[in-house]
Amino acid sequence: MNLIFPRITFIFLCVILLITFNSSHIFSDTTVKIISQSAESEFPSGIKFNIEAESSTKIEEIALRMKFGQQKSGVYEYFKFETSDSVSTELFWNTNTASKYVPPGTIVFYSFEIMTSDGYKTNSDQYQMIFDDSRFDWDEISEGMISVAYHGPVSNRANEILETIIETTKFMSPIVGDLEEEPIRVTIYNNIREMLPALPPGSETIRRELITEGQAFVDFGTLMILAAGDSSLGTAAHEVTHILVHRAGDSVFRNIPSWLDEGLAEYGNSYPAFSYDTALDYAIHTDKLLPITSMPTMPGTPEDIIIYYGQSKSLIEYLINVYGTQNMKALLSTMKSGTNVDDAFQIVYGKTKEEVENEWRDYIGASLYDWKEGEVALPTPIPRPDIKVFSLTPQPGSNVVQSTESDSIINIRSTGEESGNIIDSRSCASHNDSGSNDISAFFLIAFVNVLKFRKSFILRKINYYDKWFGEIDEPL
């Protein structure tokens, strides 16, 4: 009896306080009505939101709340207007900066929160719109939760891409599970000129001179695919696998490691590039395999990147063929629960990831790697030249500025050092006559081929693909 009375008193006081703080909501006679609302894509600049609302008391604040695609968190912004009982206002949300970039085809969920002068607040229903590229009139085909948007005479290619993505999701389902409840939206561009403005903001030089064949935006659940070219189906398979893998393995604490992500993406690619196998064979015979499972990110040189892709693909194939799809599914599920990749390997495979990598090395006939305690493999830094003062006469530690007799062009060189080659920033690779970074002719051929067939974020020189700048006249 002594315990019951204090509890009743506490509950009674809580109810009184709740009524006191919310009396303006419970007993308010305020009514708010949204007369109209809209959201209009002005891609790539942003989204224009409009709202017209009326209230029995003056409206003081209207907040716009938004969530883009499958992002876990949302954002909000306030409309600007003069306090009134009848409000018609507009808000423009910019998407043309790196921090606010939203890819085309993204589903935008939004709602309004309205507050009146007497403290009354109300929330609208949730609305949604598709942030399409407003430069074109889009047609759309879909099956289940997968939609493909296209324009122009490319319906055949759009259907092929849709079928490829559906086949890929089915093939990967034993590993990633059933993820069909979350939509995947694909936007197809017909040529590079169309696609360039749709890419994330970046260097104008890079955007002008390099080509992206496809890109997955995992948090948004969207893909961009370049329809022109022979590799669009492989690009679609590779990129959609990225989305599936991240959904299956990412946690709120960390994402899955790059080597696992890229290896699974190539495993799910039904149109693989033979050059990855060529690069792997080259690395095995030249003893250039990377300690891949200890690398936090991709390496920095073109040669190492190709080897990285070849290793990732081969290692994932080994894990699945030897240990089974169920263990790979368990590995992703364990990491999604918040476990880091090192502990996840111990839980699922009973071994460290380094031990598993050496098993794979032994399986393919490569030399084993001896990890040192705490050692982490990082890309080799590119040395930067020392900045020295200029001098008209040779002096230690300075650069000589002199005029050549042949053409009177100013020549700058470093005293006591050999002048290096001038590297064209537009080139896919630099050339060095010293031989220290020499790559065999065989491997260079493989490198060119992998750039031709690479499925994810492939960068190449535009002047080799001028035909892609023209409109497609024939149905694909």
Radius of gyration: 29 Å
Strand-residue fraction?
15-25%
How much helicity do the residues have?
25-40%
- Sequence stretches where pLDDT stays below 50 over 5 or more residues: 19-27, 373-379, 390-396, 398-476
Major sheet, described briefly?
7 strands, antiparallel
How do the SSEs run, as a string of H and E?
Answer: HHEEEEEEEEEHEHHEEHHHHHHHEEEH
Per DSSP E runs of 2 or more residues, the count of β-strands stands at 15
- Distance between the terminal alpha carbons, to the nearest Å? 82 Å
Average of per-residue pLDDT values:
79
The CATH architecture of the domain at 139-364 comes to: Orthogonal Bundle
Any overview of this molecule?
With 476 residues, the protein is an alpha+beta fold. Helix content is 34%, strand content 22%. Among the domains are: 28-131, Immunoglobulins (Immunoglobulin-like, Sandwich), CATH 2.60.40; 139-364, Neutral Protease Domain 2 (Neutral Protease, domain 2, Orthogonal Bundle). It is built from 13 helices and 15 strands. It is elongated, with a radius of gyration of 29 Å. The relative contact order is 0.10. The model is unreliable at 19-27, 373-379, 390-396 and 398-476 (pLDDT under 50).
